[in-house]
Design goal:
Number of strands: 0
Distance between the termini: 87 Å
Strand content: under 5%
Radius of gyration: 33 Å
Structural class: mainly alpha
Length: 110
């Protein structure tokens, strides 16, 4: 029911119903037409448990996909963190070697 092309629809409502749409719109800071559209869509889906189930399955699949992506990102982050730690250890070892050679070179020149 969602996601496809939309088409305009004109309906006639009693004056009191239009007033109530305006009241609801003011409460939620929306437009009366948007409130009417959502009420109509909710009413159309309400009696159709199959459509509700399909909508819930779609949401569940999206959540599962996001969960898998988060796990993959977490694994990559851990791998990169381990690589950075190895590089840092190698860099520190190199600095120590260079500092040791530098101090030896200075003692030779003196």
């Amino acid at each position: 029911m969602t996601g496809g092309k939309t088409r305009p629809l004109t309906i006639r409502l009693p004056a009191r119903a239009v007033e109530r749409l305006h009241e609801h719109a003011n409460i939620v800071k929306g437009r009366p037409t948007a409130i009417a559209r959502e009420l109509i869509l909710a009413g159309l889906i309400k009696g159709h448990s199959r459509e509700q189930a399909e909508r819930m399955l779609t949401i569940e699949r999206r959540l599962a996909s996001i969960g898998q992506e988060m796990q993959a990102v977490s694994r990559k982050t851990e791998e990169q963190s381990a690589s950075v730690e190895r590089l840092l250890a190698m860099f520190e070892a190199l600095l120590q070697v260079l500092a040791g050679e530098h101090s030896k070179d200075n003692s030779r020149h003196e």
